[in-house]
Design a protein that fits this description.
The complex is a heterodimer of chains A (659) and B (698).
Chain A (H helix, E strand, L loop, with lengths): L8 H16 L14 H11 L54 E5 L3 E5 L9 E3 L2 H9 L25 H10 L2 E3 L2 H5 L7 H9 L8 E4 L3 H14 L2 E5 L19 E5 L6 E5 L4 E5 L4 H10 L2 E2 L12 H7 L6 H4 L2 H4 E8 L2 E3 L15 H4 L8 E8 L1 E2 L3 E9 L2 H13 L6 E5 L1 H9 L6 H17 L8 E9 L1 H17 L3 E2 L2 H23 L2 E11 L3 H18 L5 E10 L3 E11 L6 H18 L24 H14 L12
Parallel strand pairs in A: 5-7, 6-7
Antiparallel strand pairs in A: 1-2, 2-3, 4-5, 8-9, 9-13, 10-14, 11-12, 11-13, 15-17, 15-18, 16-17, 16-20, 19-21, 20-21
Chain B lengths: L4 H4 E5 L4 E6 H5 L4 H6 L16 H9 L2 H12 L4 H15 L5 H18 L3 E3 L1 H13 L2 E5 L9 H9 L5 E5 H4 L4 H7 L2 E4 L7 H18 L3 E2 L17 H12 L7 E9 L5 H9 L8 H6 L11 E5 L3 E2 H5 L20 H21 L2 E2 H14 L4 E3 H17 L4 E2 L4 H11 L4 E3 L4 E4 L21 H40 L10 E3 L5 H21 L11 H14 L3 E4 L2 E6 L3 H9 L1 H14 L4 E2 L2 H18 L7 H13 L3 E5 L5 E5 L1 H10 L13
Parallel strand pairs in B: 3-9, 4-7, 4-8, 5-6, 5-7, 11-13
Antiparallel strand pairs in B: 1-2, 2-3, 8-9, 8-10, 12-15, 14-15, 16-18, 17-18, 19-21, 20-21
Helix pairs in contact in B: 4-12, 5-6, 5-12, 6-12, 7-9, 12-13, 13-17, 14-21, 18-19, 18-21, 21-22, 21-23, 21-24, 25-26, 25-27, 25-28, 26-27
The chains are: A alpha+beta (659), B alpha/beta (698).
Chain lengths: 659, 698
């Protein structure tokens, strides 16, 4: 879990106190953030606390956690202060992922080594001794061969804006903040697909928004949409900018003025209804701000997509997002009670907040997943929950992926999923170990013993074993019961509980892995992720087939070094979500982005042929439009087109996504 | 070993490149067979994702499969007894299932070289193909598709696997093998599993069979070997692909259960086929002896003879994904449970296209022997009513044929000096032809009247003994001619199309005495001539679709390929896409026409027999056609047209293209109603309308 912040502090403190009572009562699971104890101490403590009981046989591959995140700063500032400023680049990288201060850095000593900077994540400011050799071995990286990105463009480098004077005047009259500056325009011209970042590093988009505006409430958005319709100006809604579907790219051939409607200043929680456990929230708020503000009142939404540090509520709704803890809190469509969106036809909303409504097809579902093609989402009523009492991590190792999948399936069958359960394949398991911080003597020793226990005594093969990471949330008793049930199922499926540290690292890596791509770019590596959902009986073949297909496609193109890995990240009654990472060394290829896109396209074809879907939560955007006709029949697509045509007859929302 | 070195390998010259083949027997002639059979054996290059399963585990998996359970449910619902159905599944599996024991393989590894050393000179194989195969097996399940020309094929691939330490194949075999005492179980122990010849109407068997095969392919990592042609090709040509097992295997990919499958064509070329004589009788209609052990023991007499070399070409692995990918849309059925989706029509067509493609690859890999070309010259001599020809003439003619094949990339096996190679071939086939002191090569009369049991108790022999006397040698020669016929079939059909137009079509340009010249004919007319020519070629291509292997959607390419040879040799002139001159009686033209003569005779007689008559579709029909052919060939000498194989293919195609319509009478009889127009077109295209003896019938 990422934890930039003081918002985690209360959790940490609660954990620490939980742990004390846990230990005294002989319970094993313990808090995971231990700012005070060094890792060695923690390790031995863990061993000691391995008393009797079901999970006493646990083996921790990694005995201790890392340094606690953040600092001990406790001073409470204004919880409603936004994390990301209007000038995004002051906090965030303009040509890569995440915070300016957080990145992988390569150092040259007598050998190369890698560290991660900043204090926002638990691997921050730590040297990662195994990582450089892993990249060299797996991806054939030559650290002497570095291609740094281009510097920030000069003002004259940006495409000339197309200005519709009357619209600009209108914006000024309305008193809405706006900008014509190149940087502001460029930073809203893209999301985070490989191709987009590549352009930022090495080129320039042919078309970027001509104007950026920051409305602050629903009323202003209504006025802007009206103005845009009257003056034939294109609006592209912008939330957190974390799209990975090409959804924010400006259509090159668009000759009208393109206005980026940045929702980030619509970021208030309008009200919290404690009786009904709902909250009305403006759509521009980003995940970490929302959770921090709710937490101050004792609530959470529980919606944590991997991008939640930067992505916005409106974006979640517009792409049908999914959160890590959906097993407890639900996906975005389960969380949304009401949604309000401004379209060229007017505002779409459902008046009742009744928990379920039978009134024909749910019109709110026209908005969910609309990807900015029919309007701007301005306000959402979300369910909220009280902050959970306890949060435990856990992990299970399996001798192979098949057994892991079987276990996941059984867990889903009994509907006893914890907040999160994910199964990492062998490649990702090994990758996780490459990102381990330096280990002390004791750590090495216990690590060695565990490895020996698993491989020698239990007969696990280090090249096939995989790990499931777990996150439990709820009351003490609930979590204890869940853990027992889950580990029982795991044992029945050949799994061995492997401790909380492994689990925790797994979740932390989810956030950090996004940073690795920027490092890769410097050394000729392109990397990307994509995902799908698939019925249970096809999970395994899909994973195998897609990985095989990618490797073969690479081989056919003479690519020598590839890394393909997958994990099962969500479980449902009828299937699972599978997430793939794919990286390759492109030295020697003339057009790596094109090669990548071709391979991903073929991988998607393979996914569809194996019974997988076009996307589980990333959405369609522009890069997956070509697969819509393999997703819906012709009349079904016709209906979608008709909806777009009705709401937006002049194509004001002309981002070209979806269809 | 050292002294044998020059003998251990061979380079077969192909037009521009040469392929290196090594002799698998060379080492066996030097070292102990026993030690060889008992050597430390472990396969190298195993499938990365293999799951080892015992026979019982495989059976259990099949029994527990959704498909088998579902089939049983359905049958129970229609009133059958569950327990007896489950017992049936067990017994089907017991009958079907293979066991693969290294001990049995070792026995074969001991015995086979002994036999092979006795009857064969060398067993040549391209090692490069073996290594490609090995590296493919590691990543992808492999299907081995060898040619089937002889019983000798049966364990050859397994032996190769043992020789090169490849994972041992599992082989699909027909039930008739199983019923052979001892040998049946020996084969099972070496990896054969048995399937009934026809079981489409038995859903339970079909379900068990599919599960069994798909489990093997998906999980075990053993290459699956089967004969795409379904049965031994008696005629020496490729048979049309059988799609049942192929479709079942391809389903693994079509249903997304495997990322890919590799198909490896294996072309096995024999200098001399063990069953050459037997096949000739079978094709004429003398029933073949059942494949019994006693039959095999009788075959021990062959141990005294020499059968030349075997040349095995392991082809490049073909990715099923690359081939089928563009032809099918897998996502449409991907949400239905696997066992509930049979192959759709477009999927079936794609499988057929793949089957045809693989057969073409097998043909490309086959090495054509000089003997095949010699046989063509022999049969032409026989057609002239002669029994011998001077060696010098034979050498000259065959040399010319080789040069012709060279132009189209045909692989002809010539080792060393041409004349010596030719003499070696005569040596191996001295039962068919031999060189006498006078310098002439004499063709032997094979059939000794009275020696062969022609009148078996229950089967009426259709042909007169005089005909059989002549025909046997013709069919033996044809068996070998057919082994190279695929190389020239395209030009031959273009030649046939040209000739039929010249002789019958008013559109054709001005005709000279011996050649056809078109000067000053208007371009429009020439264009029409060309497209008419192609249309006729395509028609012939469809007509002979069962006898010769043509790939789907390649009509245009095949036509251009065929025309190219004729223009290259100068017997047809094409100027700016129009045909200017055809040498009606040119050497190439007449050779090509002779090459397909037995087929044109057989097909036109078949068409004539069917004209204006409604016939019962049964065995008697084929015999009636053969009877008509007998009348014709007794005059023109083209005895190989009597082949029942060809006649059956002709009937099948005629039904397929609507020249006759199959209908089922209430009595259960199937009748064929002719379409005289199409039948007439066929005979016109075959240029056989003015056949004098048949004219009365018209």
């Amino acid at each position: 879990m990422a934890s930039s912040a003081r918002d985690r502090l209360s959790v940490i403190q609660r954990h620490l106190s939980n742990r004390k009572c846990d230990s005294s009562s002989g319970q094993f699971q313990c808090g995971t953030f231990s700012a005070s104890s060094s890792r060695e101490e923690k390790g031995t403590e863990l061993e000691k606390s391995s008393g009797p009981g079901l999970s006493r046989s646990e083996i921790c591959l990694q005995p201790a956690s890392w340094r606690a995140s953040g600092s001990d700063e406790t001073a409470k500032t204004d919880v409603t202060a936004p994390t990301v400023p209007r000038k995004r680049q002051e906090l965030l990288k303009w040509n890569g992922w995440g915070y300016n201060d957080s990145k992988f850095i390569v150092h040259k000593d007598k050998d190369y080594y890698v560290s991660f900077s900043g204090n926002r994540y638990k691997i921050g400011s730590l040297v990662l001794p195994h990582f450089s050799s892993w990249v060299q071995d797996t991806l054939g990286v030559n650290f002497d061969d570095c291609t740094p990105p281009q510097p920030l463009p000069q003002p004259q480098d940006y495409p000339q804006p197309i200005i519709q004077e009357e619209f600009l005047e209108g914006v000024k009259t309305l008193g809405i903040t706006h900008s014509l500056e190149g940087e502001d325009r460029l930073f809203r011209a893209h999301g985070h697909t490989l191709a987009e970042i590549f352009v930022l590093r090495e080129g320039m988009f042919p078309r970027i928004p001509d104007l950026v505006i920051w409305p602050t409430n629903h009323g202003e958005v209504e006025k802007i949409v009206e103005l845009a319709c009257r003056l034939q100006v294109v609006l592209i809604p912008f939330g957190g900018g974390t799209s990975v579907s090409g959804a924010l790219i400006c259509p090159e051939e668009e000759s009208r003025m393109i206005v980026s409607l940045d929702t980030s200043q619509m970021r208030r929680i309008l009200w919290v209804d404690e009786k009904n456990l709902t909250a009305r929230i403006e759509s521009g708020i980003i995940g970490q701000d929302l959770e921090r503000q709710l937490k101050a009142r004792g609530y959470v939404t529980g919606h944590e997509p991997d991008s939640y540090e930067f992505s916005s509520l409106g974006g979640w709704v517009a792409t049908r997002a999914s959160g890590m803890k959906k097993n407890i809190y639900g996906n975005i469509e389960d969380l949304v009670v009401q949604v309000k969106a401004v379209t060229p036809r007017g505002t779409v909303e459902r008046y009742t907040a009744g928990p379920r409504v039978s009134a024909g097809p749910d019109v709110q579902h026209f908005i969910l997943g609309s990807e900015g093609t029919i309007g701007v989402i301005t306000e959402v009523t979300l369910k909220v929950r009280p902050v959970p009492q306890v949060q435990h991590y856990g992990s299970i190792v399996f001798p192979n992926f098949t057994m892991g999948v079987n276990c996941m399936r059984e867990v889903a069958l009994h509907r006893c999923q914890p907040a999160s359960i994910r199964l990492l394949d062998n490649e990702q398991f090994k990758f996780g170990h490459a990102l381990k911080p330096p280990t002390g003597i004791m750590g090495l020793l216990t690590d060695g013993i565990k490895k020996m226990y698993l491989t020698r005594i239990r007969g696990f093969d280090i090249n096939t074993m995989c790990v499931a990471t777990l996150l439990f949330e709820g009351s003490e008793q609930e979590v204890a019961a869940q853990e027992k049930r889950l580990y029982d199922i795991a044992l029945n499926n050949g799994g061995i509980p492997a401790g909380d540290a492994n689990g925790q690292r797994g979740y932390m890596l989810t956030f950090v892995i996004a940073y690795i791509r920027d490092l890769g770019f410097d050394y000729g590596i392109v990397a990307e992720s994509f995902e799908t959902s698939v019925p249970w009986d096809r999970v395994q073949t899909l994973c195998h087939n897609v990985k095989h297909r990618i490797k073969m496609e690479c081989k056919e193109r003479g690519i020598k070094h590839t890394f393909v890995t997958c994990r099962v990240t969500q479980t449902y009654d009828a299937g699972a979500c599978v997430y793939f990472y794919f990286a390759f060394n492109y030295r020697g290829l003339s057009d790596p982005v094109h090669v990548y896109e071709t391979i991903e396209g073929n991988a998607r074809n393979e996914i569809l042929a194996c019974g997988g879907s076009i996307s589980h939560h990333h959405g369609v955007g522009k890069i997956r439009r070509q697969f819509m006709n393999q997703t819906y029949s012709e009349p079904s697509l016709g209906a979608l087109k008709a909806i777009k045509k009705y709401f937006d007859p002049d194509n004001v929302f002309a981002n070209g996504n979806l269809l | 070993m050292a002294q044998a070195a020059p003998e251990t390998s061979s380079t077969i010259s192909v037009s521009s490149q040469s392929v290196h083949y090594m002799d698998m027997l060379a080492e066996r002639r030097e070292t102990s067979d026993l030690r060889w059979a008992l050597r430390n054996w472990e396969s190298k290059g195993n499938y990365k994702f293999a799951i080892k399963m015992t026979r019982a585990e495989v059976f259990d998996k099949v029994m527990q499969s959704e498909r088998v359970k579902h089939t049983i449910e359905k049958m129970v619902a229609s009133g059958q007894d569950r327990e007896s159905l489950e017992a049936e599944v067990s017994s089907i599996l017991e009958q079907m299932g293979h066991t693969q024991e290294l001990a049995v393989i070792r026995k074969f590894a001991f015995v086979l070289p002994k036999i092979m050393k006795k009857i064969y000179g060398r067993i040549l194989i391209n090692e490069e193909g073996i290594e490609k195969l090995r590296s493919t097996i590691v990543e992808t399940p492999v299907i081995l598709l060898p040619t089937h020309r002889s019983y000798a094929d049966f364990l050859l691939v397994s032996y190769i696997a043992y020789h090169f330490n490849l994972p041992l194949p599992v082989i699909a075999a027909g039930m008739d093998f199983m019923n052979m005492a001892v040998v049946g179980e020996m084969l099972r122990g070496s990896g054969a599993f048995y399937i009934r010849r026809s079981f489409m109407d038995n859903p339970l068997y079909w379900a068990v069979f599919q599960e069994y095969v798909q489990n093997l392919v998906e999980h075990t990592g053993s290459p699956l070997e089967f004969f795409l042609e379904g049965t031994r090709s008696r005629s020496g040509k490729s048979l049309p692909p059988k799609l049942g097992l192929l479709g079942c295997v391809l389903e693994c990919w079509l249903r997304g259960r495997l990322p890919d499958l590799a198909i490896v064509p294996v072309s096995i070329s024999y200098d001399r086929t063990l069953e050459e004589k037997l096949y000739a009788y079978e094709l004429l209609g003398v029933p073949k002896p059942p494949e019994s052990t006693s039959g095999l023991l009788k075959a021990t007499s062959i141990l005294k003879e020499s059968f030349g070399n075997i040349c095995i070409h392991v082809g490049d692995p073909l990715s099923v994904r690359s081939f089928l990918g563009p032809q099918v849309e897998r996502h449409i059925r991907a949400s239905v449970p696997f066992h509930l989706v049979p192959l759709g029509k477009s999927e079936f067509n794609a499988c057929e296209a793949l089957g045809l493609h693989v057969l073409r690859k097998i043909q490309e890999g086959a090495v054509v022997s000089l003997w095949s070309l010699m046989c063509l010259q022999f049969i032409r001599v026989l057609w002239k009513g002669q029994w011998s020809l001077p060696l010098t003439k034979l050498v000259e003619d065959v040399k010319w044929l080789v040069s012709l094949l060279d132009k189209i990339g045909g692989k002809v096996a010539i080792e060393g000096i041409f004349e010596e190679a030719l003499m070696k071939n005569l040596d191996v086939h001295n039962q068919i032809a031999c060189l006498r002191e006078d310098g002439d090569v004499y063709i032997q009369q094979i059939h000794q009247p009275g020696t062969q049991v022609l009148h078996s108790q229950n089967k009426k022999v259709n042909l007169t003994s005089a005909t059989v006397e002549h025909a046997v040698i013709h069919l033996m020669l044809q068996h070998y001619i057919n082994q190279s016929i695929h190389l020239l079939i395209r030009p031959a059909l273009v030649a046939q199309a040209l000739v039929s137009m010249v002789d019958h079509n008013p559109v054709c340009p001005v005709e000279g005495e011996n050649s056809l010249v078109s000067n000053g004919v208007n371009p429009e007319m020439q264009e029409r001539f060309m497209s008419e020519l192609q249309a006729r070629f395509v028609f012939l291509r469809t007509l002979f679709g069962c006898d010769f292997i043509f790939e789907k959607d390649r009509e245009g390419k095949d036509f251009m390929e065929g025309l190219a040879l004729l223009t290259w040799c100068g017997e047809v002139n094409v100027v700016q896409g129009a045909i200017h001159r055809v040498e009606r009686n040119g050497k190439v033209m007449s050779t090509l026409l002779d090459l397909i003569r037995p087929f044109t005779v057989a097909y036109s007689c078949t068409a004539r027999t069917m004209t204006s008559e409604t016939l019962l579709d049964n065995g008697a029909l084929v015999l009636a056609i053969q009877g008509n052919i007998e009348n014709v060939v007794s005059k023109n000498g083209v005895y190989s047209a009597l082949s029942l194989d060809t006649i059956r293919h002709a009937v099948r195609t005629l039904t397929k293209i609507g020249a006759v319509t199959k209908t089922c009478r209430s009595s259960g009889q199937v009748v064929l109603t002719p379409n005289d127009e199409i039948l007439h077109n066929i005979r016109e295209a075959l240029n056989r309308i003015p056949l004098t003896p048949l004219q009365s019938k018209l």
